[in-house]
């Protein structure tokens, strides 16, 4: 698969191991970042809630993140908790929305992408 550019929100990360799990703007499978992936983030950590822009590639049926760049720090800090099964079970059935792929949980930037810019650590 050819890499494509995408936005996503970090929903889990481990700074010591330089790993992260990302919720992608296309609402498809989660994407994974590891220290083995190509990165412009040397010395910068990804934290849950960070909005990032990255290159997405498929590796052995896993979506992998390359070249992540932070767009906004902590802008979606409540996303991981809102996705947890504990919170899903508390939603009234009448309030559950359709699972159509057009539903957006996170409002991502428009497709007119701004220049990428690294945010210093």
Detailed description of the structure:
- It is a single chain.
- The longest helix has 5 residues, at 79-83.
- The protein is 8% helix and 33% strand.
- It is built from 2 helices and 5 strands, in the order βββββαα.
- It is mostly beta strands and 121 residues long.
- The protein has a 5-stranded mixed beta barrel.
- The chain has one domain: Nucleic acid-binding proteins (OB fold (Dihydrolipoamide Acetyltransferase, E2P)), CATH 2.40.50.
Question: Can you lay out the helices and strands and say which pair or pack?
Answer:
Elements: E1 4-14, E2 19-24, E3 31-33, E4 51-59, E5 62-72, H1 79-83, H2 85-89
Parallel strand pairs: 3-5
Antiparallel strand pairs: 1-2, 1-4, 2-3, 4-5
Biased composition (Low complexity): 74-84
Protein name: Cold shock protein, CspA family
Biased composition (Basic and acidic residues): 112-121
Question: Architecture, CATH level 2?
Answer: Beta Barrel
| Helix and strand sequence | EEEEEHH
**First-residue to last-residue Cα separation:** 32 Å
The main β sheet shows up as:
5 strands, mixed, barrel
Compute the average pLDDT: 74
The helix content, as a percent range, equals: under 10%
User: Could you list the spans in which at least 5 consecutive residues all have pLDDT below 50?
Assistant: 93-101
Strand proportion: 25-35%
**Alpha-carbon Rg, integer:** 15 Å
Number of domains: 1
What is the count of DSSP helices, taking H or I runs of 4+ residues?
2
